[in-house]
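[step 3/7] inverse_fold.run input=structure_tokens len=336
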């Protein structure tokens, strides 16, 4: 493992921001990781696929990129398997592997950018399935005492795009591997999400396999979300806000068509993309940054944008949504 100085992070963040790390190293093993941490360069910032981070300035200290690889079946049951996956594996490559083996559970989360090690941190999810639905446990290395610890499901305190790693344990761990429980058969197919059933129908699929669902999700995502290789972005920039029912009722007076989803506790979730579009931001360009034309929840870099510019746009969007609807949006992306 070599620690490099004054290292350009441009290829390491999907927003395409041109910032530098004071020190940078790739870690391919737990021994590498420990060696990096023993360098005593602080602070330490753990980077995965760089798909959920907005760098607003050069990064001080040591950036470690998790490159811990490996996918293996660790337990086999009659109807399911447990698969342990290295934290540095690319999430979508793991999904494709699972689908090719006939293991079900992650196909709805096809094409989510980022790494396996980052997936529990914000409990990634798409099309009716969340990481917590297939999660068994994870192993993580503490960044200061260098001890390995196992976090079981309940230890992670998963919520909507949330876990203990975004709260009490934030910035303290490197997730080295994650164990998932995947089905061999029967699979629990999840096609109820509107766009999936529509796409399967359009593809002429009547009895979908997990591969058909993965394919449909890939089609939907590529049609709605910008490809970071072509236009810098971090997927959804904001979380969908969860509000009191009364807030929605107020909105429904002026916007009877407002989409919303009831939550078990009586509150409601309102799609942030809709709120942002209603405020006139969809497709709008501000300097080198802007709001994506096909999904208002996604902020993009049209080329040469700075993190500061994106942050300012996000702030302007938050303020206008709050003023119009009385709902305060929260960023999903991690600002550094
Ligand atoms: N909508 C608009 N205008 C827009 C975008 C959306 O009116 O510009 C409306 C849609 O018409 C629909 C509703 O908002 O009624 C929901 O839209 P969509 O199905 O596209 O999903 P989303 O709520 O905007 C969430 C996730 C995505 C995930 C999709 C599909 C969050 C923050 N985002 O988006 O996740 O792919 O559902 O499950 O929960 C990500 O986290 O990076 C991400 C892409």
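[step 3/7] decode complete -> sequence:
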């Amino acid at each position: 493992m070599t620690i490099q100085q004054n290292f350009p992070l441009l290829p390491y963040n999907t927003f395409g921001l041109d910032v530098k790390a004071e020190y940078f190293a790739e870690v391919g093993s737990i021994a590498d990781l420990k060696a990096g941490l023993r360098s005593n360069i602080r602070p330490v910032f753990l980077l995965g696929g760089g798909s959920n981070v907005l760098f607003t300035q050069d990064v001080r200290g040591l950036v470690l990129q998790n490159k811990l690889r490996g996918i293996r079946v660790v337990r086999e049951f009659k109807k399911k398997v447990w698969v342990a996956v290295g934290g540095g594996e690319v999430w979508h490559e793991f999904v494709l592997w699972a689908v090719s083996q006939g293991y079900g559970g992650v196909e709805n989360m096809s094409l989510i950018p980022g790494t396996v090690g980052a997936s529990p941190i914000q409990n990634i999810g798409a099309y009716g399935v969340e990481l917590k639905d297939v999660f068994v446990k994870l192993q993580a290395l503490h960044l200061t005492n260098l001890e390995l610890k196992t976090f079981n499901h309940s230890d992670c305190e998963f919520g909507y795009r949330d876990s203990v790693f975004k709260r009490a344990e934030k910035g303290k761990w490197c997730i080295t591997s994650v164990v998932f429980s995947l089905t061999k058969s029967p699979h629990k197919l999840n096609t109820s999400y509107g766009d999936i059933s529509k796409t399967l129908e359009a593809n002429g699929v009547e009895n979908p396999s997990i591969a058909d669902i993965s394919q449909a999700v890939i089609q939907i995502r590529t049609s709605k979300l910008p490809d970071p290789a072509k236009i810098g972005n971090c997927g959804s920039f904001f979380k969908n806000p969860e509000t009191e029912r009364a807030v929605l009722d107020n909105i429904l007076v002026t916007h009877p068509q407002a989409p919303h989803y009831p939550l078990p506790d009586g509150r409601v979730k309102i799609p942030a993309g809709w709120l942002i579009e209603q405020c006139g931001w969809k497709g709008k360009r501000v300097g080198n940054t802007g709001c994506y034309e096909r999904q208002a929840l996604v902020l993009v870099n049209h080329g040469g944008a700075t993190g500061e510019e994106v942050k300012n746009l996000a702030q302007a969007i938050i303020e206008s949504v709050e003023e119009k609807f009385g709902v305060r949006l929260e960023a999903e992306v991690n600002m550094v």
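[step 4/7] annotate
The chain has a mean pLDDT of 96.
Residues 4-66 form a domain with the Uridine Diphospho-n-acetylenolpyruvylglucosamine Reductase; domain 2 fold (CATH 3.30.43.10).
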